[in-house]
Amino acid sequence: MKTPISTAALKPSAPDLNPPRKYKQYAGWLVLIAVLIACSVRTEVTPYQLIRGLPQMGILLQEMFPPDWSYLPTIWAPMLETVQIAILGTTLGGLLAIPVALLCAYNLGLSRFVSFPARMVLNLVRTVPDLLFAAIFVAVFGIGPFAGMLALVFFSFGIIAKLTFEAIEAIDPGPLEAMTAVGANRMQIIMFGVVPQALPYFMSYLLYTFEVNVRAAAVLGLVGAGGIGLLLDRSLGLFRYDRAAVIILLTLVIVLVIDYGSTIIRRKLL
Amino acid sequence: MKNATSAITGKTSGSVFRSRIRFALIGLLVIIVYYWSVQGMQFEGIQGTAGTVSKSILQGFLHPDWSFVYIAEGEDLLRGLLDTLVISILGTVVAAVVCIPFAFWASTNMSRQLAVSGSGKIVLSIIRVFPEIIVAILFIKAVGPGSFAGVLALGIHSVGMLGKLYSETIEAIDRGPQEALIASGANRLQVLRYAVLPQVIPQFLSYSLYRFEINIRSATTLGLVGAGGIGTPLIFALQVRNWNRVGIILLGIIVLIILTDLISGWVRRRII
Lengths: 270, 272
What we know:
The complex is a heterodimer of chains A (270) and B (272).
Chain A: H1 2-10, H2 19-43, H3 47-64, H4 72-104, H5 112-127, H6 130-141, H7 145-169, H8 173-181, H9 186-220, H10 229-237, H11 241-269
Helix pairs in contact in A: 4-7, 4-9, 5-7, 6-7, 7-9, 8-9, 9-11, 10-11
Chain B: H1 2-9, H2 12-40, H3 50-62, H4 77-106, H5 114-129, H6 132-143, H7 147-171, H8 176-183, H9 188-222, H10 231-239, H11 243-271
Helix pairs in contact in B: 1-2, 3-11, 4-5, 4-7, 4-9, 4-11, 5-7, 6-7, 7-9, 8-9, 9-11, 10-11
């Protein structure tokens, strides 16, 4: 509070531009603190509890070590199933996303009456949590990886379609105009003007969604949709934390390997 | 790139052949991966009950259970949604604060040795790798079921992503003010306060809000494993196949997410 007065005294000619904005900032921080206090009262989550909870976490970690490595052969098959669910879910979701992304893009000459509803549907699909999709498909198709795959199809469809239509809208309009000028029809414009420009982005988003989906597939089993999640749930339910530790470590390794590989491919694509 | 350079140097036929071989190998690899994946997907055929179940799901979604929106005593939709919102706000704030030291640890321009920032980056990516549901399950085992486990799960999980984004922000700051302050004899703390923080705070806030949008989506499902919020009534409704109730909860989630996205987007535009 001292500084503005002293600078004003030193340089009376320089107008102080900041004060109104500063008050707004203080007000913003105050609102944030008030919201935080309200939240903390509502859930009875306090910093004190936060500090008290951490040692309990340490006890849990202690029980996890040493991990029960003899469990590894048992979880290998479900782990691979998790990856398979992610691969198929991402691919089918990506294929579904292509036509919808083309519908959503404003720069392909489609009427807004088509694009706008398509975008609304996409927004709706993206608000549904993946686990809820999985629970619904488990109810329809029974317990197993097929329900999980379908859940990921819808989940990845939402992500890929949104990212892809944004990439399509950012493409260079030059080739499209040139093709329109020489009389190409809409299919030709899409095939030879849009696809070559948008394909690297699409592939990159596909890989990115695959990374997300491997993580998602690892927990789908909690609602019965196949993969490693079911075994994790079971070992935790039986208080076999040493087994849970093996599952978590294996998931970690698989996810890291896939992330690493996918990042390299994505860097080559773009 | 390789093809272009070899085309210039004149080895066209060889490079075309090589690129074709590479293309074929990649194609073969992709086919093998897909064949393997389809093999693993044992599809038992659509169950006999699938038709009636889908019909009742559709019925439930078309006729949501409006009476669940507000119940004077006990668990209803509005309280569940409020809990979800509160969990994601607290989780985001915990992460936004906890990740600051991690971010400074992981940014290359804040330490002289590369090993320091490198190890920070590795720690952040390990945190980032864990799915938040797994983190939530672990915290439920540690501190018992409830909102607290949800807040901790979101808080710890978000540190991974926020720390990475924060550290990238720190790495991108303008060095000018920092050097000017050092030249005029400021100590490290003063440099941090007057040169670094003013440059990074708006970006930090914007990233935190972005993470908040992600967290509110995660918070809706945290309750499925017992970490509080709207997911708790949702899993009960799913277990007893009460699709009308699932329908109203889904509707509530959609409205909540759209509203928070709008508000958070508005605030983010004002900050930057």
